[in-house]
Amino acid sequence: MSLSSSPAARVFRADGPVPARNGLLRIGTRGSRLAIAQTTTVAETVAAATGCEVALVTITTHGDVSRESLAQLGGTGVFVSALREALMAGECDLAVHSLKDLPTGPCAGIATGAIPQRADARDALCARDGLTLAQLPAGANVGTGSPRRAAQLLAARPDISVHDLRGNVDTRLGRVSADLDAVVLAAAGLDRSGLAAAITERFDLATVPTAPGQGALGIECRDTDRGRDPYAAAFAALDDPETHACAVAERSLLSALEAGCAAPVGAAAALHDGVLTLSATVYRLDGGAQLTVEQSSGWTLGDAQTPLALGAAAARELLERGAAALAPLGSAR
Ligand SMILES: NCc1[nH]cc(CCC(=O)O)c1CC(=O)O
């Protein structure tokens, strides 16, 4: 007797290493609440599209167990490298990253298979007592580890005092009403972690553009697997071409500026009626000056070139207008 339909595909979490076998795709993930939440969504799509069983394989990194600050460890790059090493070592078949943590340069042996539909790209204020940024008292203490967010906060509220912020989402939120009046975090991370209730204001992207790729995921595989099934079927189901185009435009800007993830650069790309628009701002670290450019171009499905060109053109215009003298862009990745 033959089955007319395959048994319901399953997603399961593995406690240890899982050997490769046909009909199984292993997705590597960090163990944080945020990482598990976003990887589970991806796993369900992959299972439905391929009929494969899907295992979530938690990859523990030095960054997850160390109490050193991220800066001491070498930035979010440590998480990215651990997942890529697990892919190359054959411990998993797919890896899910927050796109904004991925360096813009290529990585030998690794391909980006898909960029799924973006979550909220905005930054969120999480303040005590439901306060918005405008409602915070004079001299309020606000936490962020990001030079871009610090500059944006100071641009809007030169009176506040900005404090460094480290650790996972729960640790950062815990500082509110402990020793800080508010913290700024990515809305996407809070939404995906089920912590949206902590948000007291979502900043408008037009005035507070966020990190290139923020709110989007990047799904990677070994580049030898990319075009074959079940990978191709998984990527076709996962990829959102419009998010992909916007994210590439934003990341192309960062790459052409030779800027790292800590550079005070905000970007927001959007697609409306076949027109791709990229807006980008470079901030002086004290928030006292900024430079904004906007570039647009027609875009249709399958056009991989325009997003790259748009990012490069916006970067060129920023540099021509003095962006490098305004802010440290360095720490190229
Ligand atoms: N900087 C770390 C980081 N990398 C990805 C996210 C979650 C948001 C996203 O997926 O873009 C965060 C947290 C934050 O910025 O608050």
Automatic annotation (TrEMBL):
Highest taxon above the source species: Bacteria
GO cellular component: cytoplasm
Annotated transmembrane regions: none
GO aspect biological process, one term: heme biosynthetic process
Keywords from the named record: Porphyrin biosynthesis, Transferase
Enzyme type, top EC level: transferase
Molecular function terms from GO: hydroxymethylbilane synthase activity
Domain Porphobilinogen deaminase N-terminal: 25-226
InterPro entries for the chain: HemC, Porphobilin_deaminase_cofac_BS, Porphobilin_deaminase_N, Porphobilinogen_deaminase_C, Porphobilinogen_deaminase_C_sf
Functional summary from the UniProt entry: Tetrapolymerization of the monopyrrole PBG into the hydroxymethylbilane pre-uroporphyrinogen in several discrete steps.
Assembly and interaction partners: Monomer.
Family under the similarity heading: Belongs to the HMBS family.
Protein name: Hydroxymethylbilane synthase
Organism: Leucobacter luti
